[in-house]
Amino acid sequence: MWRALVFLALLALAAYGAVWIADHPGTVNVNWGGYDVQMSLAIALTGVLVAAIVIALIWAIVTGVIGLPASISRSTRERRRNKGLASLSRGMIAVGSGDPLAARRHASDAERLLGSQPLTLLLKAQAAQISGDRDAAERAFRSMADDPETRVLGLRGLFVEARRREDETTARAYAVEAARLAPSVTWANEAVMEAHCADGDWSAATETVERRASLGLMDKHAARRQRAVLLTAAAQSNEAGAPDTATDQALKAVKLAPDLVPAAVIAGRLLARRNDLRKAAKIVEAAWKSTPHPELGRVYLNLRTGDSARDRVARAETLAKLSSWDPEARLVLAQAAAEAKEFGRARETLAPLLDDRPTVRVCRMMARIEAAEHGAETGRSREWLARAARAPRDPAWVADGVISERWAPISPTTGRLDAFVWKTPPEILAAPEDEDASMAVDTDAPRIGATQTVPSTPSPSMPVPTSAGAAPASKPGFLETGAGSSAPATTTPAAPAIPRAPVPPGTPVERPRHIA
Q1: How many degrees, rounded to 5, is the angle at CA 188 between CA 186 and CA 191?
Q2: How far apart, in whole angstroms, are the C-alpha atoms of residue 467 and residue 29?
Q3: DSSP 8-class letter at 351
Q4: Is the dihedral of CA 128, 130, 135, 137 positive or negative?
Q5: Hey, where are the domains in the chain?
Q6: Does the pTM of the predicted model rise above 0.70?
Q7: Using an 8 Å Cβ cutoff, are 140 and 116 in contact?
Q8: What's the 3-state SS for 427-471?
Q9: For 379-418, what is each residue's pLDDT tens digit?
């Protein structure tokens, strides 16, 4: 539209000029070289216009001939560039679809046509990765790490390759360097924090969390939670040797996350040693309202040294009222009542839990009550122990398919921070041939299932248990998003047989439960 208007305006201007020249006739005299030429103004202007057109054509031909080699070279480069970009695009598609042969072919074409550009090096590295050529992938990533523009990307690839060959020292060095060059890189910060947690350097891990929060890489609630977990871990390690430091750290953790059970347990225990019973009770009660936990109940009942059994029963009643008679509160109260020789009250407290499939702890509590009142060899005590062998599970600390006796700040399988959750583990489906054998096993013998219970701090020589049938935890690939992400274990249908894994001596484990 605008072009048409401009054309019409120029046409009108030319017509106006022609009319003006016609209304103002005149002559032009040219005297040059002894010649005297006289012509009208219109003819002179026409001659000047024709001469200008001829000169422009001659100039265009001359410049075209002179610039022909450069034009041919530029056209060739453009064609090579377009072919290289097409090979690069096809190579990325081949990598995404998992075609190693096509990916390597297109990566070679892209490198030949485009040279060692960042994208061609990345395609070459990814093609080598899906082909299983780790050496070629590492060479490509090293080339990228040597270029300041792609240094962080190259360090990311080298970090993943180091993780694949289980060279944690080298992987940590790459992550630290990447975090120094680009403080906002998420994978590097997470890897550095995992390394600090693995070393037990909780203060350095806390600094990493604070730096990530200041850069806006995580929301404030998650940052507060992680800081509380790290402070709890530090208090846990300092509780025996430096109780004052551990108390301060536990109180800071409780302030950041009042519902964090391990922090409340440590704070309550250490404050009770200081004889600050009111503050200890307040902290334990606040955590108990959020998550009734047996450790909280144990700390609360033993706040004051030398309390009688009836005093502990009164404290247990307080916990029961705070949690609206949660099942955990009933277990705590029943235990206190049994210790006070109030066996009838203990049975009455547990009665609502006996109606619908009592759990293992409920059955064992009933067995202890019967044994304390009538003797350990009574039939009722043995009956409850037999029921405990096939009862549903109780809540426990679970992280990435592992059940632990005690809370730990990181997962023993993935190293993920704040991985343990207090919940009921999934039911285990026992194989049909194992059903009869489980009936004849002693009720106090260790039992092995698909999900095992392990100590919270496994030794370096002890294999880390995982869910039966699940693939071992692997390091993430270059195309994966997290530095050490893993999915929680899921319950699978009954397999032909449940594999038996070695369990360290003294490890409490749960007997497989068969569901008809």
Answers
A1: 110
A2: 107
A3: G
A4: positive
A5: 393-458+465-471+506-516
A6: no
A7: no
A8: CCCCCHHHHHHHHCCCCCCCCCCCCCEECCCCCCCCCCCCCCCCC
A9: 889 999 999 999 999 999 999 889 988 999 999 988 889 9
